[in-house]
Write a structure and sequence with these properties.
Blueprint: E1 3-10, H1 12-16, H2 20-29, E2 33-40, H3 44-50, H4 60-67, E3 72-80, H5 82-90, H6 103-107, E4 116-118, H7 122-132
Antiparallel strand pairs: 1-3, 1-4, 2-3
Catalytic activity: a ribonucleoside 5'-diphosphate + ATP = a ribonucleoside 5'-triphosphate + ADP; a 2'-deoxyribonucleoside 5'-diphosphate + ATP = a 2'-deoxyribonucleoside 5'-triphosphate + ADP
Subcellular location: Cytoplasm
Keywords: ATP-binding, Cytoplasm, Kinase, Magnesium, Metal-binding, Nucleotide metabolism, Nucleotide-binding, Phosphoprotein, Transferase
């Protein structure tokens, strides 16, 4: 197995409820290291750019509005096969379908306010990381 990186967002529903520490504890318990992190208030343009792949989908406008509704915490995570490792600890997109002990099962409010975002591939992780971080900000 290789040490790789993935991208994470702790979403506005989690920052509003002040549970970023709980999310980070679950990430670290899963064997992932947080090698870059910052708290941001996304602009509409940033959110639209980040989620541009979903632009044609019916939920795009609601997603953008949700993501700009409060601060987020963007992160770079590092570990063995980081993308699948993080996706496993995140749980299914719909918290009702997520496994016990996952972030979404334990902490999410709904399918829309599901606490975290994570990259779905190594290629997208690289793109998403570069969207928010310069190389000098990643200190592993």
């Amino acid at each position: 197995m290789a040490i790789t990186r993935t991208f994470s967002i702790i979403k506005p529903d989690a920052t509003r409820r002040n549970i970023t520490g709980k999310v980070n504890a679950m990430i670290e318990a899963a064997g992932l290291r947080i090698v870059a992190q910052k708290r941001l208030q996304l602009t509409q343009a940033q959110a639209e750019g980040f989620y541009a792949v979903h632009r044609e989908r019916g939920f795009f406008g609601e997603l953008v509005q949700f993501m700009i509704s409060g601060p987020v915490v963007v992160q770079v995570l590092e570990g063995e096969d980081a993308v699948p490792a993080y996706r496993k600890v995140m749980g299914a997109t719909n918290p009702a379908n997520a496994d016990a002990g996952t972030i979404r099962k334990e902490l999410a409010e709904s399918i829309e306010a599901n606490t975290v975002h994570g990259s779905d591939s190594d290629e997208n992780a690289a793109i998403e990381i570069a969207y928010f971080f310069s190389q000098c900000e990643i200190v592993g």
